[in-house]
Amino acid sequence: MTIRRDALTILEEIKDGAYSNIVLSRRLPRIPDKRDRALLTEIVYGVLRYKNRLDYYIIKLSNRPLKKIDSAVLTALRMGIYQLLFLERIPDRAAVYETVNALKGLTHQGGIRFANALLRGFIRKKKQVLFPDKENDPISYLVHYHSHPRWLVELWLKQYGFTRTLKLCSLNNQPPGLYIRMNTLKIHSREFIQTFVTDQIGLTAEPVNGSYQLKGFNSITELPLFNDGGFIIQGPAATLAGLLLGVRPGMRVLDMAAAPGGKTTHLAELMDNQGSIIALDIYQHKLKLIEENCQRMGVKIVKTVKNDGREYRDNKKFDMILVDAPCSGLGLIRQKPEIKWNKSQQNIKEIIKIQRELLLNAVQLVKKNGLILYTTCTLNSSENQDIINDILSAHQGKLELIDLSKDLAELGLAKTYPVDSNGFLEMFPPESKTEGFFMAKLKKVK
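and the corresponding structure tokens:
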């Protein structure tokens, strides 16, 4: 099977609801050549990032509506145009031939001829296609040229204005870095850094303590220290969440939506494996992921419980609770570009209900003077600022909003990650150079 055929079948799977990182992680190990693995990854993520721009070309160069084009043919057209636009190292003739050839057996001959003709026509006519003007039609410009769904563009324009939304959409179409968090339960920083230097793997420290960006490696599982639990894949914003909760050894802590366990293991590390952490999830296979990460990283104080955080009850109150809530994931589009196309406004309405119910139960489960940290990896005020204000309003006199600027100052990060006027922390990727994240801290005073 050719790389283009692999890419086509993967993109069809993702179109049906599969996750890009999971499908690629299954397929890549079967491909022996490093260059082929890189090409497959580039095509899959490139098509996902630029789908609307690619579709705009198809619409302008074809007399058929997109919904009238066979699914496999449409995917192949996106793949072909992406290569012709962005992969200069591949000759145009090869890009067209290999892409059209990948369609054989997946569609009828008419579909193959249509794809071949349109891709060859694109080579001749691409400069004639004009996108909406940025000044006269900014929404359509962001939708089609910067390839984001209209509802999301309109949401962000309302929240951030045009300039910041443009920066965000542009950044979302760039490949992300890979970040890891060092595990001090297993290794000291000097030894950790020296191990990567010895193996000639690029390691850059992030402002958040324990967070590093990696460059120059082939496989995560083959990296030094992985099997020994010396690190876990985790972005700097997610790492910062554990630090801001402020856990200490001996505490009793609840992680209400814990899988796959990145933040859970960090809390255990910060507690120096002293105390107890209850980690909840509604799926057994996700609890297994938490347990596997705990075992690899030497974490001994975590108990996994199959339970919905909205319904969990306990006879003893918790010192601190992490509500790392399920969310729309709009802060992770750079890492998972299919989020743009798989989420909808209706999805978000359903998610907000879950988030609110998790927080309401957390208020019941935390002790007096205990703390709740609410975090999401999304950029949507309805899931972030609005929901916290709603909870505060429902518990007037019972909850106090903690201004995160003091915690950030203690970490030496107040200028790096400034909070808003309410004390909320929203990490906006073009400015924070991290994942998109939101954090708010609540104290139960009654």
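(Above: one complete record from the training split.) The radius of gyration is 24 Å.
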